[in-house]
């Protein structure tokens, strides 16, 4: 039961997760991290980026609402995180949509050691060099996420998590597919960003990247299924997702987990 170990570790260790993230999702991300037992902090200031990263247990770089100044802070934080050996997760929100996002992701990939890149099928399809059209931040349905994950990992040379109806993750030698989750996740903005940050919290407590990533993804997907079971709309779902993230334990998780 790796999920037991992982979620229990997060709840016992309360890892500090430093998020340099987009303006849309700061509230959901901070509250989702608190719900799973992690400790969130958000900042965009270059002046404190390296110090905050040095104090953190994991760093999340999310380019959803980018600016040149924010990218400078990301580079400073990322370099400090690399020096201190803490995992860095990149969420390349909307890459492929504009040249600025593309340049930003290229710079972060070139300058930093990343533990994981997590994106939707359109974003990772673009980075994999596949025929992938990205015009905003939301993914298109029906993508072959395992094929995209394998190709993106090959192209980028780092572990990849591609989300969608099926979530696929690979480090080039192991491939896992998680078939949990719920379509309502696509009707609440920030749910992919929150998964990136929760995965960072699991990575902070486990140096086995594939195990931590699979455990975080399965845990999140099952929490979403349970949150959606009431059959209501996106507003109640968003609240229930936080409640399930806070309550779900291994006994509740195991019967629902669909992980290969
Ligand atoms: N059709 C779907 N069925 C079940 N879960 C989904 C579906 N689409 C997305 N998800 C889930 O929503 C979360 C966010 O994924 P995704 O929508 O791909 O990312 P983003 O929000 O970055 O575009 C993931 O946990 C994923 O498993
Ligand atoms: C709508 C929007 N616009 C810029 S960032 C953002 C949020 C994206 O969140 P997610 O990728 O988790 O859906
Ligand atoms: Mg996203």
TrEMBL record:
Give the reactions, separated by semicolons, that this protein catalyses: 5-(2-hydroxyethyl)-4-methylthiazole + ATP = 4-methyl-5-(2-phosphooxyethyl)-thiazole + ADP + H(+)
Q: Where does substrate bind?
A: 42, 190
Q: Where does ATP bind?
A: 118, 163
Transmembrane regions: none
Pathway(s) of this molecule: Cofactor biosynthesis; thiamine diphosphate biosynthesis; 4-methyl-5-(2-phosphoethyl)-thiazole from 5-(2-hydroxyethyl)-4-methylthiazole: step 1/1
Q: What HAMAP family does this protein map onto?
A: Thz_kinase
Q: What does this protein do?
A: Catalyzes the phosphorylation of the hydroxyl group of 4-methyl-5-beta-hydroxyethylthiazole (THZ).
Protein name, as recorded: Hydroxyethylthiazole kinase
């Amino acid at each position: 039961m790796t999920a037991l170990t992982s979620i229990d570790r997060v709840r016992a260790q309360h890892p500090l997760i430093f998020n340099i993230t987009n303006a849309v999702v700061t509230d959901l991300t901070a509250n989702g991290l608190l719900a799973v037992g992690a400790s969130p902090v958000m900042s965009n200031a270059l002046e404190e980026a390296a110090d905050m990263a040095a104090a953190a247990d994991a760093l999340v770089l999310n380019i959803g609402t980018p600016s040149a100044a924010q990218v400078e802070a990301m580079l400073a934080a990322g370099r400090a995180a690399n020096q201190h050996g803490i995992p860095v997760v990149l969420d390349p929100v909307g890459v492929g949509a504009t040249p600025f996002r593309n340049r930003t992701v290229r710079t972060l990939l070139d300058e930093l050691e990343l533990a994981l890149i997590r994106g939707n099928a359109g974003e990772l399809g673009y980075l994999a060099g596949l025929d992938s059209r990205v015009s905003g931040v939301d993914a298109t349905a029906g993508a072959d996420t395992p094929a995209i994950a394998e190709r993106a990992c090959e192209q980028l040379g780092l572990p990849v998590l591609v989300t969608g109806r099926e979530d696929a993750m690979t480090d080039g030698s192991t491939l896992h597919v998680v078939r949990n989750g719920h379509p309502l996740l696509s009707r609440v903005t920030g749910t992919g960003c929150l998964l990136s940050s929760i995965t960072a919290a699991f990575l902070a407590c486990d140096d086995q990247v594939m195990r931590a990533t699979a455990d975080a993804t399965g845990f999140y997907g099952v929490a979403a299924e349970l949150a959606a079971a009431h059959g209501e709309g996106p507003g109640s779902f968003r609240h229930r997702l936080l409640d399930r993230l806070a309550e779900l334990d291994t006994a509740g998780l195991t019967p629902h987990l669909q992980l290969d």
